[in-house]
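Per reviewer request, we include the raw input and output of the structure prediction for the construct analysed in the revised manuscript.
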Amino acid sequence: MSGWGLTDALASKPKFEARKAFFDASDAAVVVLASDTILLRGTSFETGDAVEYTKSGSSAVTGLTTGTTYYVIRSSGSTIKLATSSSNATAGTAINLTGLGNGTADTLQLVVPTLYGVDKLEQEANKSEVGHGHMGWVKVRTNGARKIAETLVALSKNAITTDAEDVEFEDYLITITTQPAATAEADAGDAIATLASVVATITGGGTITYQWQQSVDGGSTFANINPAGGVFTGADSATLGVNAGMTDTSSSWNNAQFRCVLTASGADDVTSTALTLTVNP
């Protein structure tokens, strides 16, 4: 069947059509107006399937518009109804069919969600995933002594305005190559040019944004440090410093923890390990 819409039409490749059902729209025993049903022979659809209706004559079944996607309500056997939305199909709310068409070979063709593979950037950004990029992404995960292959993505566009697969696989990868030191020690009132620092790289380009955070409750919660002033310097850079102002009795300083959140457009956020500061009297 087609993996790229109604018909695969790749150059120099065979064409494959998605499943299609033909029916005589002029036959009252096929299109039953009293029950709003259509009898399909030889091809069946399930409730919720998206199908595109195409008329074969000069007039369509009244209630349907040629070239429009509808959603199947499976009635029984090969008898179906059509709904205007997936939610209506699930709820059983069918379209009212009020007149026969005049074509003898009208069709309902399965609309296959467009599948998206991953591009070179995304493969590089997700190189820790065992698998390879193709029409859908196969990941190999380990469960005990076994390896299990699973397809992770088969996404339709569905209102996504950028690369659809980006919701699953980012384009870029931020990697911290040097974490902040685990601890630091200073005397009360001292200024510290480098309290904590982080070194990172990003694949494929892009610019890393830094935001240092502070915790005064042992790391249970962290709050962003305002880069605009106060006693901190470089709160939005790779190196966090502090002006004189520390005290050994304040919880904001003694045993406080500091970490950095690294972000970039098209990449997952990455958070550094935390540094714990000890302030001496």
